[in-house]
């Protein structure tokens, strides 16, 4: 199809089918749980952190003073803060480049017809199979002390 004009029939063949909801409220009901999770676990804590960044609390949390931008002035006057930001950027870029390069190499190797490619592809999927049992063992080790559950019955 490259290099020629497309007719309307070609567009119809290439179009994807879309869902049509009978009720106007159904799409909102379907997206509501995800929006609730995002609001409760992302936006609410972020708003709380932003609000608390303008406050000064004593060690026991008994008194709170609204100090406006004093925390930010103190933070931005520290040269160690900017050094930490620079280290974070360098580390993030290095990790992103190295992990993407390794992932690209593994993907290219998995696509080539090599000897033992079935074993190689199986080992590529291995982390997905191993992670849930490891998470379960970690959870049991975290909540069990001397063979007894810490969580009350």
Helix content: 55-70%
Shape designation: extended
What's the end-to-end separation, in Å?
66 Å
Oligomeric state of this protein? single chain
Largest sheet: 2 strands, antiparallel
Strand order of the biggest β-sheet? 1-2
Please tell me the total number of domains: 3
- Overall average pLDDT: 86
- The proportion of residues in beta strands is 5-15%
Spans of at least 5 consecutive residues with low confidence: none
Order of helices and strands: HHEEHHHEE
**Given the structure, what is the number of helices?**
5
Rg over CA atoms: 27 Å
Number of strands: 4
| Overall SS class | mainly alpha
Strand-helix topology:
Blueprint: H1 8-14, H2 26-52, E1 55-57, E2 64-66, H3 70-76, H4 79-111, H5 117-143, E3 144-145, E4 148-149
Antiparallel strand pairs: 1-2, 3-4
Overview of this structure, please?
By secondary structure, the protein is mainly alpha-helical. It folds into three domains: 54 residues, no CATH class; 35 residues; 29 residues, no CATH class. It is 66% helix and 7% strand. It has five helices and four strands, in the order ααββαααββ. The strands form two sheets. A two-stranded antiparallel ribbon has the order 1-2. The N and C termini lie far apart (66 Å). The model has no long low-confidence stretch (mean pLDDT 86).
List keywords for this structure.
single chain, 153 residues, mainly alpha, two-stranded antiparallel ribbon, two-stranded antiparallel sheet, 5 helices, 66% helix, extended
């Amino acid at each position: 199809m490259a290099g020629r004009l497309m007719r309307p029939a070609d567009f119809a063949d290439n179009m994807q089918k879309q869902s049509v909801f009978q009720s106007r409220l159904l799409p909102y009901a379907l997206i509501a749980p995800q929006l609730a999770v995002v609001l409760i676990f992302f936006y609410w804590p972020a708003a709380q952190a932003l609000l608390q960044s303008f406050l000064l609390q004593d060690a026991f949390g008994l008194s709170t003073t609204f100090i406006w931008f004093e925390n930010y002035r103190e933070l931005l006057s520290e040269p160690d803060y900017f050094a930490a930001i620079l280290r974070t950027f360098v580390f993030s870029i290095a990790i992103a480049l190295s992990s993407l390069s390794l992932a690209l190499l593994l993907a290219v190797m998995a696509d080539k017809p090599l000897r033992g490619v079935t074993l190689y592809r199986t080992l590529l999927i291995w982390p997905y199979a191993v992670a849930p049992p490891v998470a379960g063992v970690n959870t049991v080790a975290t909540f069990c002390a001397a063979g007894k559950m810490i969580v009350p019955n």
